[in-house]
């Protein structure tokens, strides 16, 4: 099935309570699949096409505060609109899953795949000091799996999480193994698990619960921000995920996520055929970022090349991780252009090996 | 006679609703937010639905409504309360969900959200406080500011050529099939408050019967924003607001 369809199917099976969306290319298959599947008949899942991305994201905020498992999906220009509610959710410490099937920008841009929303996704995106947990799938299987992982992490840390993917993975078809159906939580189960923050109705035996990100006293707002930062340090310590390919004897390293990492696998093969000892590190979580792993690999390899379908965004995080130990360069095609493995090998030779 | 001799059960003629908290309200003297909060709390108490009611507060003076009515709340982003309430109501259909919004929130930045929630007939109660001004941010022009009315962003009076005419949201939503009850009330006299309470009660009854969206506008004053004494503000409202925003029920299905 298509990557976008896998997201929809995985959401139903995982027991998502509500999906709120708005059509935008190249991710409309998510809501189309859900509407055709009619999960409200099967699991009771609510699916609603909102009047705008703004409304869809604020519906997400409303649902998340009730302790429900809620998600939305969109593509770049739509995500920009959703950032209002995403910041509110981070500020109110609410769990939700947002899928960004990235297209080339800026502005209305193009409908072709790109990775130019890396900064937006990994630096919070909206206003205020906050972070999203960001997962970057590189296969249709991972599109399905990360719905579950993304929501589990969101609930574990009471923080929104994001699947950052692109039009290539959203539209490509691969075999996928779907998990068994899980039952949705009842209101009693929600009260038992999330009773300290979920707004299920104030009963006599507890104080009212208010989902809010408002704090008018700056001393308390600072204290709250420290609490958020502590949470992010915990996420950074526990949730880094990455995958390496042929790094044991590597003298050079490609770093790429999502679609680019698939192309880089071919590039590693081609470079190895030419006798270049190159490996690949694929960050699976973009936030938290595999800083330690990149820093220790910098003691082994002579240079790193960040391959992105952008003008160079993740390369800045790699440079910070490596902290000047070795040269780090960027190679990218953007605006909806997908790089070829040959281009990547050439860039490695030109920018890193010769450079 | 000592005060303690007077405070006896048999002498009790009025009691603050249990659904109101003891927090001191931050509203200015003469403001009717407190009265409307009280009426909502009384309706919740009388219907015995405190554990089934979820409020959605706006951005504006009533942003802190959650400090005063003792129920679970969501504090929404500016204008988005109907979207937030949509999700709450859809995901927990047995709850009584209401939004509490001012005119800047509902009629300006949240005009899309309110129209679509009403059009879908979301099973929610909307309490819309219209005082023709942005109170919290310091008295700027609202979409409901009357022509000629001076505010900090229309210091020479609202010029309709520049800013358009004030929006009658209640008339607009009454035309949408999703609304079941649309009314315009006020809260400046005891009689008006009684009528308002009846309307809010009806809204919550409708929610219990899953009839669709109930929309209750409360034409209000903003003594501070209008730069008038509370009694003068009430008179100004009667003379100027009521002729433009006619009180009464537009729809009751």
What do these coordinates show?
The complex is a heterodimer of chains A (355) and B (253). With 355 residues, chain A is an alpha/beta fold. Chain A has two domains: 3-171, Rossmann fold, CATH 3.40.50; 243-354, 3-Layer(aba) Sandwich (Rossmann fold). Helices cover 45% and strands 16% of the residues of chain A. Chain A has 14 helices and 13 strands. Chain A has helices at 3-14, 28-37, 39-42, 53-65, 76-91, 118-122, 140-157, 167-171, 187-194, 218-238, 258-273, 291-297, 314-322, 341-354, and strands at 18-21, 46-49, 70-74, 97-102, 133-135, 161-166, 210-211, 242-245, 252-255, 278-283, 285-287, 303-308, 328-332. In chain A, the strands form two sheets. A seven-stranded mixed sheet of chain A has the order 2-1-3-4-6-5-11, with helices on both faces. In chain A, strand 3, helix 5 (76-91) and strand 4 form a beta-alpha-beta unit. Chain A is globular, with a radius of gyration of 21 Å. The termini of chain A are far apart. Chain B has 253 residues and is an alpha/beta fold. Chain B has one domain (24-252): Thiamin diphosphate (ThDP)-binding fold, Pyr/PP domains (Rossmann fold, 3-Layer(aba) Sandwich). Chain B has ten helices and nine strands. Chain B has helices at 3-6, 33-47, 81-91, 103-109, 111-120, 160-163, 169-174, 190-208, 223-226, 230-244, and strands spanning 53-57, 72-75, 96-102, 125-130, 133-134, 140-141, 179-186, 213-219, 248-252. In chain B, the strands form two sheets. A seven-stranded mixed sheet of chain B has the order 2-1-3-4-8-7-9, sandwiched between helices. A two-stranded antiparallel sheet of chain B has the order 5-6. Classes of the chains: A alpha/beta (355), B alpha/beta (253). Chain A binds chain B through residues 17-18, 20, 46, 48, 50-52, 54-56, 58-63, 65-66, 68, 70, 84-85, 88, 92, 187, 199-204, 208-214, and chain B through 50-54, 56, 63-64, 66, 70-77, 80, 83-88, 90-92, 95, 112-113, 115-116. Strand 7 of chain A pairs parallel with strand 2 (72-75) of chain B, so a sheet runs across the interface. Chain B: InterPro entries: 2-oxoacid:Fd_oxidoreductase, THDP-binding, TPP_enzyme_TPP-bd. Chain B: Residues 66-218 form the Thiamine pyrophosphate enzyme TPP-binding domain. Chain B: It comes from Salinivirga cyanobacteriivorans. Chain B: This is 2-oxoglutarate oxidoreductase subunit KorB. Chain B: Keywords: Oxidoreductase.
């Amino acid at each position: 099935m298509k990557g976008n369809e896998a997201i929809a199917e995985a959401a139903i099976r995982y027991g998502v309570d509500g999906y709120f969306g708005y059509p935008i290319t190249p991710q409309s298959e998510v809501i189309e699949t859900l509407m055709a599947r009619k999960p409200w008949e099967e699991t009771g899942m609510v699916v609603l096409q909102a009047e705008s991305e703004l409304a869809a994201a604020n519906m997400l905020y409303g649902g998340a505060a009730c302790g429900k498992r809620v998600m939305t999906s969109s593509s770049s220009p739509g995500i920009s609109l959703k950032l209002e509610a995403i910041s509110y959710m981070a500020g109110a410490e609410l769990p939700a899953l947002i899928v960004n099937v990235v297209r080339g920008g800026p502005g209305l841009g193009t409908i072709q795949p790109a990775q130019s929303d890396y900064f937006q996704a990994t630096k919070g995106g909206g206003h205020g000091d906050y972070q999203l947990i960001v997962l970057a799938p590189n296969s249709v299987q991972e599109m399905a799996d990360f719905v579950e992982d993304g929501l589990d992490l969101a609930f574990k840390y009471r923080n929104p999480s994001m699947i950052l993917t692109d039009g290539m993975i959203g539209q490509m078809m691969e075999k996928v193994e779907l998990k068994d159906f899980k039952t949705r939580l009842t209101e009693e189960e929600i009260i038992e698990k999330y009773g300290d923050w979920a707004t299920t109705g104030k009963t006599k035996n507890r104080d009212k619960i208010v989902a809010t990100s408002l704090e008018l006293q700056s001393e308390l707002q600072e204290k709250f921000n420290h609490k958020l930062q502590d949470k992010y340090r915990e996420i950074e310590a526990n949730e880094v995920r990455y995958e390496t390919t042929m790094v044991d004897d590597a003298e050079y390293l490609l770093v790429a996520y999502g679609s680019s990492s698939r192309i880089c696998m071919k590039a590693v093969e081609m470079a190895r055929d030419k006798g270049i000892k190159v490996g690949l590190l694929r960050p699976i979580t973009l936030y938290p970022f595999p800083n330690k792993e990149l820093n220790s690999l910098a003691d082994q390899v002579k240079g790193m090349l960040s391959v992105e379908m952008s003008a160079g965004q993740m390369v800045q995080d790699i440079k910070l991780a490596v902290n000047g130990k070795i040269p780090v360069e960027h190679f990218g095609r953007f605006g909806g252009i997908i790089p070829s493995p040959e281009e990547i090998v050439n860039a490695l030779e030109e920018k890193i090996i010769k450079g | 006679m000592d005060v303690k001799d007077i405070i006896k059960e048999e002498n009790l003629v009025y009691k603050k609703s249990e659904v109101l908290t003891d927090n001191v309200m931050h509203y200015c003297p003469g403001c009717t937010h407190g009265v409307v909060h009280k009426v909502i709390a009384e309706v919740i108490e009388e219907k015995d639905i405190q554990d089934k009611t979820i409020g959605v507060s706006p951005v504006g003076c009533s942003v802190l409504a959650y400090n005063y009515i003792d129920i679970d709340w969501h504090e929404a982003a500016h204008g988005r309360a109907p979207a937030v309430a949509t999700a709450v109501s859809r995901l927990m259909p047995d709850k009584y969900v209401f939004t509490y919004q001012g005119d800047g929130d509902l009629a300006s930045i949240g005009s899309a959200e309110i129209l679509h929630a009403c059009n879908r007939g979301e099973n929610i109660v909307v309490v819309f406080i219209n005082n023709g001004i942005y109170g919290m941010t310091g008295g700027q022009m609202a979409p409901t500011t009357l022509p000629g009315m001076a505010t900090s962003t229309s210091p020479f009076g609202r010029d309709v050529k520049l800013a358009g005419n004030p929006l009658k949201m209640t008339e607009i939503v009454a035309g949408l099939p999703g609304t079941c009850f649309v009314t315009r009330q006020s809260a400046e006299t005891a009689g008006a408050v009684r009528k308002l309470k009846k309307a809010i009660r009806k809204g919550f009854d409708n929610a219990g019967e899953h009839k669709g969206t109930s929309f209750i506008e409360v034409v209000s004053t903003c003594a501070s924003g209008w730069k008038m004494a509370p009694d003068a503000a009430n008179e100004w409202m009667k003379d100027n607001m009521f002729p433009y925003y006619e009180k009464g029920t537009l729809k009751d299905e």
